[in-house]
Request: fold
Amino acid sequence: MKVGKNTVSSCRPHDFEFENSGTLCNIATNDDIVSQEVVDEESGEVYTQFKYKRYASSAELHNYDETVAALVHLKYSLDDEIALLKKGMINEMDEEYYVYIEYVDSCKEYAREIWQ
Reply:
């Protein structure tokens, strides 16, 4: 699996982000989102901080299938996918395979929202 960029924000990130800027689309997925309460040292105010891994890329996307593939490939290389599919063929209950399938399903759902 690819390595995401460690990110910190005071706003909860969306699972997926999509921005169409002409022929090029900026896409991102945010994973392993963890929230924690933080106290501002100066004001003493308590606020929620979010830490997560961000995977981002740009691509030309013309349809649903291209969008699903681009979203999946934010986190998984083609080699990763082949290895995970082989694991799933051996053991459908393999945890890594299950996480991959869940992610692919969420990519399909998000792509449907974009292209309806």
